[in-house]
Every structure is written in structure tokens, then in C-alpha cells.
Amino acid sequence: MADYVLHILILLLLPPLLPGVIARTKAICSGRTGAPLLQNYYDLARLWSKGTVFSTATTWVFRAGPLVGLAAILTAGLMMPFGSHQAPIVFSGDMLLFVYLFGLARFFTMAAALDTGSSFEGMGAAREASFACLAEPALLFTLLTLTKLSGTYSLSGMLAHKSVMNLLHEGAALLLLAGGLYVVILAENCRIPFDDPTTHLELTMIHEVMVLDHSGPLFGTVLYGAAVKLFVLGALVTHIAFPFSSASEILDWGVFILSQLLLAVVIGLTESLMARLRLTRVPHLLMVACILTAFALLLVLR
Amino acid sequence: MTQLADQLLVVVLLLNFVVLATSRLSVSIRAVALQGILLGFLPSIIHTFSWHLAAISCGMIIVKGLLIPFLLTRALQRLLVQREPEPFLGYLATLLAGAVCMAVSFVFADRLPLAAGHQGLLFVPAAIATLLIGLLVLVTRRKAVSQVIGYLVLENGIFIFGQLLTEAMPMMVEAGVLLDLLVGIFVMGIVIGHIKTEFSSVDTSRLTALRDT
Amino acid sequence: MVPMLIIMPLVGAGVAWLVPDNRWRPWLLPVTGLIHIFLTIDLVSYPPQASLGGWIRLDSLGSLVLLAISPLFLACAFYSVGYLAYRQERSNRTLCMGLLVCLGAMSLTAVARHLGLLWLALETTTLVMAPLIYFNRNARSLEATWKYMLICSVGIALALLGILFMAYSTMVAGQEATLLIDPLVAAARHLSPAWLHASFVFILVGFGTKIGLAPLHTWKPDAYGESPGLVGAMLSGGLVICAFLGLIRVYQVCLAAGDTSFYRDALIVMGLISTAFAAIFLVRQNDFKRMLAYSSVEHVGIVVIGLGLGRGALFATLLHLLLNGFAKGILFLAAGNIHRSYNSKRCDMVHGVLRRLPWSGGLFLAGFFAVTASPPFAMFISEFGIVSGAFADGHTVVPVLLLLCLAVAFMGMAANVLPMAFGERLRDSERTPYRDSLLTVGPPLMLAALLLVFGLWLPAPLVRIIRDAGMILEGMS
Lengths: 302, 213, 477
Fold this sequence. Notes:
The structure holds three protein chains of three kinds. Chain A is mostly helical. Chain A has one domain. The longest helix of chain A is centred in the middle third of the chain and has 32 residues. The relative contact order of chain B is 0.14. Chain B has one domain. Chain C has a domain of 200 residues. In chain C, 76% of the residues lie in helices and 0% in strands. The longest helix of chain C has 34 residues. The radius of gyration of chain C is 21 Å and the shape is globular. The interface between B and C is large, with 44 and 53 residues.
């Protein structure tokens, strides 16, 4: 019981820290001091206390978009085990629901963007759709590989399984999975090399342009949802890359939180060291991620 | 030890995809050189030490890792060509075809029974996959240097399979294979140089004068 | 004695490198050729024991191949002296060295008992012939050389993988891995069928590229079209036979393994595709050297079909293999002369050859009749033997299709050759100072005489050798 409470608390409270860590890492790499680590929390508080402006061209879809997105991602977060503990919601096949919840969130974001009738948002929605077509197979291949390795269809079962944790034997496959999944994380959470989160040119945006018209609390919901998405997907990657399980619970939670922060630092470093890819190259990189995960599946299937 | 060999072969297979995906010829050459060096270490990993083995390893590393890339890079410099234009299929389709080739080779290798000591190893699928991807590169690229790189990848694939037979194949044939490879690449290099002089380009899609009218 | 067959041409190549004078160097070729043919006849009549640890031994199949390449080389050697006298503008050092090394490597192919050694010799011939195709040093021959190098190298690499598969099949069977032919044939029944199938497929594709089986033949028209006639004769007569020997050796092991339907079907299908391709492409050819290339593809297809059919058709197939080299020799050498005289390879520019060059034109015409299996030339006997053997064994569809393709090929080739030989002289055709001389006409004439004689009477020793070779291939049948 205490586990579940801790899980929900971490899921609700910790995510906005990650973008802060990423921004801090990028600042340090470029020689600046950067914003404080808790800046995102202040931003969210500020946004939630503001009023909202709605365009007269929009309908209920526009208002529902961010809310449904957040709800879906939070539910997905309830199914993802943190550390080596079971998640609050566990049933056989929950990995498919996991993927579909992300799909639902993405659908409502795109619908909200199209609802505004603006050409910029439409362009962002089109890009989002086409890149998602390439990123989701990678995610599915990863889950299929984990299923084959562990024999269960449940996320908690998969990620805690012995053979998934055994880097010595299945090292090649797991490494490939981690690599492919890392690329998918970068793509899904609009990080360089797919999308520059600090750009102000709408023509170059993919994710930010979809939420241009949101303001006030809804915009806060959007930012919060994005942070939770990064957190949940990050939990998947850290599970595969650093499987760690010990007897002490405090140690487990501590290691989990540390590894999430470490992942944020790595993402920050990647963003500092790479440049944004040309838009025509993005499908190539996503295809490479697909191939890496498919290759891992092949290796495991033999 | 066989686990290490398997991980090595996974890296070799990933290098195949690097060759498929990149458009910069210097990156392709370095990827193939790295593949050659890794494959040069392979015999020492899976077999017990012997002077014959050490000689083959060293020869392989020197020829495939240093000599042939040096010849190719020199050809590149003389030809002043840096990038490969879009291949006949397009990069996305080529990557997809490469993935399909790899899947096919795994399926095909599963149907072939293995000898007693070799169960569960990656050698046969890796060999066939590298061969098919080498053929793919050869067939879909325009620049003559890329076609030679494809040929090198193909020969690497054959070498991977040959590792299963190192006890059986006497030194003479292995050395002869290496030598023929070297001479073959050398001749190809000379021909490429002549192509550059005659056609002022190494775009082989221009070699279309000979046809059945 | 057998290693002398290989070493002597290599020594000759070394001497060719040292000789400075462009006019005297070509004489090395006939000298080497004469020594080679004497050695061949001696060795074939009294086959010696195995040497070099069992890696080299002359058996009947090898004898057949040697009897095919040695007279061809001798003819090309004498021809080259006359031909190179007209091509003094460029150095013939590479050409002479290349031809001699090629002869050594081809002899090694004929006597090798180790599949790896056989492969090595074939790869050497591939590499050595590349500079010879480029003899004319123009853009077209460069393109031809590039295609040849690339396609044949890939083919040879695939054949190597096939040979490695065969060695591995012995390991899977739990025996000591070997690539020597005799142990392989003896152990064939126990070898893993999956690996043998895979090995045969790769070797068929690999050596098939060298032989020129469709659809792997795409380098042939370019290479034969752009190289000098002499080189074309060696390529189509000598190299094709040696690559065939590689295929036959592996086929020998596969046949000994038992269930042969897979291999036979594969061979027959590839053979039919080749003859069909060749027949279609022969019809609209405008370049008579490319036409000869397609004729070569056609004959390769016929031999492969014959190998696949086996049994009744086997004797005729092996005879056809022997005669094909001679017929191609006549055609290519005569074509070379015609090219020299008219300075053009186009069929529509070359008319009335019989009037301008009575000997070369006559030989070209005779070669055409020989190659399309008209009596009294010997190829009539071999092709008739294949078809009748096929009918006698109970096949119907395959021989009928074969006959159809042969008929189309005959018509296509005739539509090209007859106007060349008999047509009216064209106003704008060039006339170079080339004249038929003894050296450029004599060798193809000798080959034609051989074909005529064999058409009427096959000498008993030759029949015995071919029968022995057939016995090796098919075992007891």
C-alpha cells in the first residue's frame, strides 16, 4: 500500500524536475548559469493562476485536448513500474493499453491542434502524425522483445523479470533496445535532434506549434503532461538500461530517482552536442531506431 | 568466449547498416575498415591460439583495416568525390530492404542444421546477412567507389562463414583468398582511375553507352 | 610432369615481361602453345599418378578440358602473331603476359582435385583477363571492363561461399572437413542435404556468372563486344569451359549424394532461360561481336540443359562442351579479322565480306554454320545427341522448348550473318590496309578443319575419354 502511495506521489510531483535538469545541463554546457532547477514548478503555478482566452473558432475538442492527454498519460504512468516495484495497475496485456494510451493522448493533441483551424497547427499535426508512424513500431518492437524474453504480457512482469535484467547474456539485444528506445524518447518528447524546444520559428516546430493557441491553465496542463510523458518513457528506458534490484526499498526508490535524473542529464548532453536534423532526415533516423529494435527482436527470437 | 564472438558479430551487423545509411563515402570506408578489423580479431576469439591463426588475424587486420581503406581513400582524393548522390532506391527504401534481408537471412539460417560445436551461434545468419547487404549496396549505388565498398562487405560476409571452417581450410587457400581480394581491389582501383579519366566522373549510371540497340 | 603444364606458361609470362621488343614478343605465345599441346597429348595418353599430396591429378574430365583449351590456345597464339603485327601502335606486353598466365591458370583448373584450389585458379583467370578486355583503351572497353570486373568478382565470391557450404556439410555430417573431390564423392551420401542444396545454388549462381547463364550474363555482350577477337575467343572458348569444370565437379558430388531431382531441375530451368534469352536477343543484334556473345550464352544454356538431363544426353553434352570452344574460336578470330578490315562492328556497315576477305568471310560463314549445328560440322552430332537422348529418356517438354529456341536463334543469327557475307558492297564502308594473311587465317582454318573431321569421324581415344568422363559424373550409368 505504501508502495502505491509513493508511486502516485512520485508520478505527480517529480516529472517537472526533469525538464529543469535538462535545461540546466544545456546551460552548463554552453557556459551559462541557467534557470533554477525548480523553475518549471514556478511556471506551472504561475500558469494555473492565470485566466484563459479561447478562440471563437474552437469547440470542446480544443478544451478537451490537453485534459484528455494528461489523463491518458497519468493512467499510463500508473501502469509503468518504477524501480523494481510493481505498478498500481497490473493485468496481463497492460503493455498494449500502455501504447494505446499514448496514442490516445497524441490523437487528442492533434485533434485540438486541427480544431483551431490555423495553418501552423495543422502543419504541426501533419508532421506529428507522420513521425509517429515510424516511432510507434519501434516502441512496439521493444515491448515484443521484452515479452519474448520474459514470457509475460504485463509491463510489471516484463521489466522485473530475471532474463531482462541479465545484461551478460542478453546484452546485445538489450543494448539495441535501449538505443532504439532512446531515439524514440527524443522523438516523442520533442528534443533535439528531432525538434528544438527553444526555437521561436513556427515553421521549424513540431510539438510546440500544435499548442500555440493554448493559454493559462490549459497551457500549464500541456506542459505538465509533456513532463509526465518524458518521465514515464524515461522509466522504461532506465529499466532496460540500468536494471537494479536490491532488498532495501529506500535504496531502490533512491536509485530509480537518481537514474531518472541521470537520464535527464544524458538528454541534456545529447541536446548540447547535436544539432537539429533536417526535416527530411528525421524519417531516416526513426527508421534506424525501428531497425535497431527489430534487430533486437530477431536476436531474441532465434 | 562464444558470447563475446556473438556480441562482436552484432556490432559487425550494425556496421552493415551504417554503410547502408550513410551518404558520405569516407564514413562508409571507415565503417568497412572497422568491420575488417573486428573480423580480424574474430579467429583469435573463437579458436585456441596457434601461429597460423595469429598470422591470419594480423594479415586480415592489416589488409582489410589499413591497406584497402588506404587505397580507397587515395582513390577518393584523386577523384575529388565526397558524397554519394541518392541511390537508385532512396535511403529509406534501402534501409528497409536491408532490414528485410537481415530477417530473411535469419529465417534461412534457421533451416540449416549446424555442426555439434556451433549450435546457437550467430555465424551463419550474420554471414548471409552481411552478404545480402553487401549485394544490396553494390546493386543500388551509383558511384564506382560505393560499389567496391559493397564488394568488400560481401567478402566480409564470406569471411564470417569461413571462420566456422578454420580448422579445415588450410592456410594456403585462406591466404590465397586474401591475396585475390587485394589484387581484385587493386585492379578495381585502377579501373576506377581510368573511368575518372575517360568519363570525368565516377558516376556509373553514366556507363550506358553499351546497350543492345 | 603435370605441374609443368602450369609452371611453363607462367615462366613464359615472366619471359614476356622481360622481352623489350614489341614485334618479337608475340612469338612467345605459339612457342608456349606448342610445348603445352605436346605436354597435353602426352599426359592425356598416359595419365600420371596424383601429385602434390593428392591436390593435383589428371582424370578424364580434366583431360577433356585440357584437350579443349590447348588447341584453342595454340590457334589463338599463332593468330596473335599476325594480329598484333597490325596493332603495333600499342604495347602488347600486358596482352602476352595475360594470355600466358591465363593458360597456366586454366591448366590448373583442369588438374585441381581440391575445390579451393580450383576456385583460386578461376579467380586468377578472372583477374588476369580484365586488363585484356581493356586492350583497346577507349571509353567503351572501359565500361565493358568495369562491368566484367564487378559482375564476375561477385560471382566468384558467391561461388566461394558455395564451396565453403560444401565443406561445412562434411562437418555437419560429423566427418573431417575436406574439400578434396574424391573424399567428398565417397562421403556424399552422408552429407546434409540442406547444406548441399544451398551450396549448389550458390555455386550455380557464382560459376554461372562466369559461364554466362542468363540472367547473370549481362557482362558478356559488353566484354565480348569490346575486346579484341583473340581475347573474345579465349574468354568464350577457354574460360567458359574451365568455369563449367568447376560447376561439374560440384555437380559430381551432388549427384553422388543421392536424390538428384533438385539439382537436375535447377540446371534445366537455368539452361532453358539462357537459351530463350539468347534466342530473343540474337534476333535484333546490330553488332556482330555482341551477337557472338549471345550465341555463347545460347550454347552455355544447351550444355547446362544437357547436364541437367544427363543419362542418355550426357555423352553428347560433354562432346558439345569440347566443340563449343573450337567453334567460338573460329567465329571470334574471323570476326576480329573482319573488324580489322572494315573498322566497324556494325552488321549494317559490313556487307559483302566474302568478296573483300574470301578466307575470313568464308570462315565466318563456316563458323556460323558450325555454331548453329548444321551438318557436316561436329556440333550437329552433339546437339542432335542431346535432343535425341532427351527424347529417349522420356522427356518431352524440355527438348521441344530447346528445339524451339534453337530454331529462333538460327533464324536470328542467319538474318545477321548472311547479309554480312553475301550482301552488296556498301558505298560508305571503310577499307583499311588489312589483308588476310597466313597467320590470321590459318589458325581458324585449322579449327574449322578439326570440326569438320570430328563431324565425320570421332577418334576412338576421344570417345573413350568422353565416356570415362561421363562415367565419373553419373557413376554407374
